[in-house]
Amino acid sequence: MKLFSANIEDLRTLYITNLKKALDMEQKITDALPNMIEKATDPQLATAFRDHLRQSEGHVANVESLLRKTTGDAGTVTCKAISGLVTEAEDSIKDASDPSIRDITLIACGQQVEHHEIAVYGTLRTWATILGLTDDARILESILNEEKAADKLLSSISDGVNMQAAA
Ligand SMILES: [Fe+2]
Ligand SMILES: [Fe+2]
User: Fold this and answer.
1) What are the tens digits of pLDDT across the range 58-99?
2) CA 98 to ligand 2 center in whole angstroms
3) Do residues 125 and 144 lie in contact, with contact meaning Cβ atoms separated by under 8 Å?
4) How far apart are CA 63 and CA 49, in angstroms?
5) Angle 43-90-53 from CA coordinates, rounded to 5°
6) Which letter does DSSP use for residue 78 in this model?
7) Nearest ligand, CA of residue 114?
8) For the domain that residue 23 is a member of, what is the CATH number?
9) Domain ranges, residue 76
10) pLDDT given for residue 1 in this prediction
11) How does pLDDT run across 132-162, given as a tens digit for each residue?
12) CA of 26 to the centre of ligand 1 (A)
């Protein structure tokens, strides 16, 4: 992709807006995870959510510091996608009374969130690279890797839980 200087300014604005959306997204995820931990029956699943809550708190801090460095403040822009995913997750969990079904519902909802985060951080990392913000790109890449690992872990836990739900 070839960008001219006017495009670079536009991309910089787009980058900052989407960093602010990522901050709102992470704050909403850290608010939603305690309920998911509480609703999980499988101990491995509860631990995975608990560990990812700690990582997500780190993501909030990381994105906040990227924003402070670039703009001087850490304001947010509403991430409508995560609001939708969290609402949908709450509805689905309410509908699932059987513990195994609830666990696979929690995993499905968790993976939808992780996939959204993977798309968000993949894009932000690429934009930071184009803008020559190598430190930002490195931090975003490390967040991206944690989201990918969380998604993978949920996939492997789901193998065991799915078997129980089918039994
Ligand atoms: Fe995250
Ligand atoms: Fe995540």
Assistant:
1) 999 999 999 999 999 999 999 999 999 999 999 999 999 899
2) 25
3) yes
4) 20
5) 50
6) -
7) 2
8) 1.20.1260.10
9) 5-166
10) 63
11) 999 999 999 999 999 999 999 999 999 888 7
12) 6
Tokens of 58: 């780190």
Task: Give distance in angstroms: CA of 55 to centre of ligand 1.
Answer: 7
Distance, CA of 11 to CA of 20 (rounded, Å): 14
Helix H or strand E segment including 103: helix 99-130
Q: Which two tokens stand for residue 124?
A: 């932000």
Per-residue pLDDT, 2: 67
Say which amino acid occupies 14: L
Buried b (16+ CB within 10 A) or exposed e, 94-127: eeeeeebebbbbbbebbbbbbebbbebbebbbeb
- Number of compact structural domains in the chain: 1
Ligand 1 centroid – CA 56 distance (Å)? 5
CA 100 to ligand 1 centroid distance, Å: 25
Q: For residue 134, give the amino acid letter.
A: T
Nearest to 17 by CA among 55, 86, 71: 71
Give the Å distance between the CA of 145 and the centre of ligand 1.
10
